[in-house]
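Re: that chain you flagged

S.,

Sorry for the slow reply, it's been a week of failed gels. I finally had a moment to sit down with the sequence you sent. For the record, here it is as I used it:
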Amino acid sequence: MKKNILVFVFIFLFSFANLYASFSIIVGKDATKDGSVLLAHNEDAGGERIVNWFKVPRISHSPDEKIILKNGGALNQVKETFGYLWLEVPGLEFSDAYMNEWGVTIASSGCLSKEGAGSVSDSGIGYFLRKVIAERAKTAREGVKLAGEIIEKIGYSYSGRSYCIADPNEGWVLAVVRGNHWIAKRVPDNEVAVVPNYYTIGEIDLRDTSNYLGSADIVDYAIQKGWYDPKSGKKFNFRLAYTPPEVLQAYWNIPRHVQAINLLSSKQYHYYEKLPFSFKPKKKLTVQNIMNVLRNHYEGTQFEMNPKFNNGNPHKNFVMRICSETNQYGFVAQLRNWLPADIGNVLWVAPRRPCIQPFIPLYSGINDVPENYHKYDYKQAIPNHFKNVEKQKGRSDYAFPVFAGYADSVDNSYGSLIGCIKKEKETFERKEFENQLPFEEKVLKIYKTNSKKAKTLLTEYTSKLAEEVYKRTKSKQRILWGR
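Prediction finished late last night. Pasting the structure tokens below so you have them in one place:
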């Protein structure tokens, strides 16, 4: 009987790892070379998926309008919602990412908690939480507070999750638990935080409201549930109290966590060592440094795969990679407070898999993304989100299936192909970064007197790069398929 239970637990955890193995990094503004805040994320989702890219404008709403939540509840809508960039993964509740017009950027990673039920009214909130933050928050701190208010009012519907929320001045990690409990910690400006699929917030101090926000009874509730004993003499530790022990020891969490820290930190950590919530990097970091972490497969470590296996494909492995088989997109948000938000906030997105595709810059101020980067327009996205994606009609030149097919084709002969792919990708990105500052200086001069014209230039620039990546990928995919 015990053996069967262990097998069931293993199968369940393996399924969780493959379906919800997302990964995030937040870099404070004093830890970067240019003074920007960076938020990076790889979104993992098993199965056949698509990803739509949208630019949603500001929208005015009627006084009695409601947001109808997935599980049946409702929230009052505000008079006007902010515009935002939106990466949508139809069919999934927790895989979308957002950057709004103020630079507030949100992504998340699933974190199983010990909570089995929690207090949830009207079935609580899940999918819509990050969307509401994007639509209403001008800062990351505002986003955290807004999320906390909603969770305490109607409850959170999923076991647990860590939301990474950043703006051009600071970054926060928000850990939520099924029901009404949550805790958030600010990432120090001179440090880096890495978040795999378990809670990373340890000891807390809610008296320090500059760096911590959360449910007033977060400790008392853990005592009530028997997850923390104050008589033990140990300080309260959120991640130890609220996380199942098997998740803290999971093979899809520790290797990714250790590897990312060791790539960026001057202090090197080993597998069984206590890992910090955040750490000081060994040097000032750039967008490119963080992109390289999102592409990592444990090269040069004990977890690196033997290149003789699986045609050199590093993705399909028992130990979850940072860049994994199930990556649907990767992004690095570059958030700069010394520039107008339209120009200063850039969402660099790699379609499908970061190790084979270049990152494309989406400026916050663009008017739209190329039409073939979404299957339908943003107005159809919410009504369609939880419907059968395969049965939905869309564009014949829709980009994402091309990126997905190319990734699958490369994986079949990864070892022999990756050298040329990497070289071409690096050349493309090098030109992007060489052109970035001269282009932005040109746009900034125009923006000061004609913001509308400047936004058109941003849109044309982004669209040109996105279309070039699409055409190149489509051409290479045909060659790999022998067409």
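What I noticed first: The longest strand covers residues 156-166.

Talk soon,
D.
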